[in-house]
Specification:
Blueprint (H helix, E strand, L loop, with lengths): L1 H9 L1 E7 L3 H10 L4 E6 L3 E7 H14 L2 E8 L1 H7 L4 H17 L2 E2 L1 E5 L6 H10 L6 E2 L5 H11 L3 E9 L2 E8 L13 E5 L3 E10 L1 E2 L6 E2 L4 E4 L1 E4 L10 E4 L3 E17 L1 E19 L2 E4 L9 E10 L2 E17 L2 H19 L5 E11 L3 E13 L1 E5 L3
Parallel strand pairs: 6-9
Antiparallel strand pairs: 1-3, 1-4, 2-3, 5-7, 8-9, 10-14, 10-24, 11-13, 11-17, 12-14, 15-16, 17-23, 18-19, 18-21, 20-21, 22-23
Helix pairs in contact: 2-3
């Protein structure tokens, strides 16, 4: 490891040596204390590494042995410095950026709070600010254990808190006191309504008066089971009916319908990645953006941006991945397979586990440039929903 670091700092050259006397060339170099390493044979001769100083001395031994030397690669710190020697503004900008990042990394620039539902994040942040802990506070000035204790003492809804500092960010993980489970008051009268349109397939009523029957078509909001019950009283002298009000309870299964329509173009672009990448850095200070590197040299590329925040300074790291766009044409058969895949993925993503898919009808229409897909999904699901009874 130390030898590799030393070679990198001094700089080295990867050479290909060809000729009839490559072994004599290597022996002469070694005899004259020229250090060669990573010596490997190839179909032309040998490939080896040598320091910059050693490379300058090799030329006379190449002439003496009749060998030819070809430079394959230049590596190491001296070559890196030479490469950026003419780009003084860039080098200065990078040094300034590193200094700024080091300086601002000593501060807390963001406070993230997780796990709080009842307590507002703003209340916790205001409390921290009263304790002189906010964005721009030096890390070494924060006593984490003391802050945890003070938060527990001042917020009765917090049962546990863990604070840690990661980079320039303070992370608070909070657990609140779990409230007692809300008990449904089954003595409170209520109706059961449809939460969506559907065709009634089954209705099991435990309490209340059913207002629909099997094979009825209902709309969202229609009353399925009423909490109002008619009481028959043969002994009553009055002809007016009397009612009792109960907490309606029922399980209602209905057939529901969903439409999924979209288009699939026959022509599409396939991305063939070349493996070449380029990075571009920029800094935003008070929303004013400064680019630190040249423009992208690729014609077609994907852009991946990562952002690091240091208070009012934001560092953007843009990575560009080159690809060659290749135009492709789907057949109708391939387009249909792709459409089926899209529909199945949407069913998995959008329908819950309690919903049964009863039927899936797909209609394909060829529109020359694209395939028009029109589908109807039939599902079996519960549509009952309790609401407060309006007397």
């Amino acid at each position: 490891m130390l030898l590799n670091i030393n070679n990198f700092c001094k700089g080295y050259v990867l050479l290909e040596v060809t000729g009839f006397s490559t072994e004599r060339f290597i022996n002469l170099a070694s005899y004259n204390n020229i250090y060669l390493w990573d010596i490997k044979k190839n179909k032309n001769g040998v490939v080896l590494k040598v320091s910059i100083k050693g490379f300058k001395l090799l030329k006379k031994y190449a002439r003496k042995t009749g060998c030819k030397i070809k430079i394959l690669k230049k590596s190491g710190l001296p070559f890196k410095i030479y490469k950026y020697k003419k780009r003084k503004i860039f080098a200065l900008g990078m040094i300034l950026l590193i200094c700024l990042l080091y300086f601002f990394s000593s501060f807390i620039w963001k406070i993230d709070i997780y796990g709080n539902k009842k307590i507002k994040s703003s209340e916790i942040l205001n409390f921290c600010e009263q304790k002189k802990i906010k964005a721009g506070t030096l890390k070494h000035k924060i006593n984490i254990k003391k802050l945890e204790r003070e938060l527990l003492e001042n917020f009765s809804d917090i049962s546990w808190i863990n604070i840690k500092i990661k980079g320039s960010k303070m992370i608070m993980n909070i657990k609140e006191i779990i409230p007692a489970e809300k008990i449904i008051n089954k003595k409170e009268p209520c109706d059961i309504v449809a939460k969506k349109d559907g065709l009634i397939l089954n209705i099991i009523t435990s309490a209340g008066t059913p207002k629909v029957k099997i094979n009825d078509v209902v709309k969202k909001g229609d009353i399925l089971v009423s909490g109002e019950i008619l009481i028959e009283n043969n002994n009553s002298e009055s002809n007016e009916p009397s009612f009792d009000y109960v907490h309606a309870d029922a399980k209602v299964i209905a057939k529901t319908y969903y439409q999924i329509n979209f288009k699939i173009p026959y022509e599409y672009v396939l991305k063939k990645y070349t493996g070449k990448t380029q990075k571009n850095y920029s800094v935003a200070i008070n929303n004013k953006k400064i680019n630190l590197l040249s423009r992208v040299k690729f014609k077609a590329y994907d852009k991946i941006t990562r952002q690091k925040n240091f208070g009012f300074i934001k560092l953007f790291i843009n990575e560009y991945r080159e690809f060659i766009p290749i135009k492709k044409i789907r057949s109708i058969s391939d387009a249909k397979k792709f459409a089926n895949k899209i529909i199945n993925n949407r069913i998995i993503r959008e329908f819950d586990f309690e919903t049964d898919i009863f039927d899936k009808q797909i209609n394909f229409i060829d529109k020359k440039k694209y395939l028009d897909v029109q589908s109807i999904i039939t599902a079996l699901e519960r549509i009952d929903k309790k609401i407060k009874l309006q007397k």
